[in-house]
Amino acid sequence: MDPLLVDTHCWLWLQSEPRRFNPRVLALLAETDLPLWLSVASLWEIAIKHALGKLPLPQPPQVYVPRRMLSSGCEALPIEPPHALAVAGLPHHHGDPFDRMLIAQAQHEGVRLLTVDRQLAAYDVDILWADADPEGMVQEPSRPSRSRSSRSRRTRS
Prior knowledge:
Number of strands: 6
Shape: globular
CATH topology: Rossmann fold
Largest sheet: 6 strands, mixed
Structural class: alpha/beta
Number of helices: 6
Helix content: 25-40%
CATH class: Alpha Beta
CATH superfamily: 5'-nuclease
Order of helices and strands: EHHEHHEHHEEE
Strand order of the largest sheet: 3-2-1-4-5-6
């Protein structure tokens, strides 16, 4: 099964407020053969927001995030040069640099993005809406992805 790139907001909800998800999406996420990825961009966003006092966490992010990633079987997706450079070619439908990186990574890796951010629907990316029935609201990309790295073939242990 292809990995699912989880956006920052959704990953935080999975840790503390899973009831915000559509029950069918939660059931899909519980499948053990579904690899979950959390971008290094999300780790950076969590660290910045926590340091600014905008994101309270029960532990410092350098403790909380790795522990929660390990317990949920979520792998870190590094920011590779092609990801960073792909951001330059994205239309400016969304101004958040972290979300723009997630779009670039999802496009480049050819994976679906789990999000609730409806602004991301303007991009050519496969989206699974966390708060909607997965059968009713799936956005497929209008063109095939550019490439798929060897990361997308890994599965969780």
